[in-house]
């Protein structure tokens, strides 16, 4: 799940990435905005989901995926879109365009 917060005085958006997987011990966000280097997500015990907040420039689209326990890839089922990647699957897309 993606939650977006836009700032009036900055050309950036705070994106909250949230992901739930019943058996996952570790989930990492892997995205083009950080050169596809995994970023560990924190587990929220109360909500039983992994979360990560990250600020991104507005008016762009970014590809990303979730890496579960270092070996299983998954997409965000609430992403803004999906695009084929070079590995025979799809990437999730987050769009940071401000809507009027």
From TrEMBL:
Pfam families in UniProt: AMPK1_CBM (PF16561)
InterPro entries hit by this protein: AMPK1_CBM, Ig-like_fold, Ig_E-set
Superkingdom to which the source organism belongs: Bacteria
Start and end residues of each AMP-activated protein kinase glycogen-binding domain: 15-96
UniProt-recorded name of the protein: Isoamylase early set domain-containing protein
């Amino acid at each position: 799940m993606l939650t977006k917060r836009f700032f009036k005085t900055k050309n950036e958006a705070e994106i909250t990435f949230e992901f739930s997987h019943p058996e996952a011990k570790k989930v990492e966000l892997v995205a083009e905005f950080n050169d596809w280097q995994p970023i560990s997500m924190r587990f929220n015990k109360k909500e039983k989901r992994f979360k990560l907040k990250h600020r991104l420039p507005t008016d762009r689209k970014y590809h990303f995926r979730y890496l579960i326990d270092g070996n299983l890839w998954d997409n965000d089922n609430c992403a803004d879109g999906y695009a084929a990647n070079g590995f025979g699957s799809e990437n999730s897309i987050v769009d940071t365009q401000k809507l009027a």
